[in-house]
Amino acid sequence: MADFAGPVGVVGAGTMGTGIAITAVRAGIPTVLTDVSETQLRAGADSVAAFLNKSVARGKLTAQDRAAALDRLTTAPTFDGLADCAVVIEAIAEDVAAKQELFATLGKTVGDEVLLVTNTSTLSVTAIAAGAARPENVVGMHFCNPAPLMPLVEVVDGMRTSAETHAAALRLTAALGKTAVVIKDTPGFIVNRLLIPFENDCIRALERGVATVADIDRAVRFGLGYPMGPFTLLDTVGLDLHRAVSLSLYHQLRDPRFAPPPLVDRMIAAGRLGRKTGHGFYEYESAGLFGT
Question: Would you tell me which of 84, 88, 131, 137 could form a disulfide with 103, CB atoms 3.0–4.6 Å apart?
Answer without folding.
Answer: 131
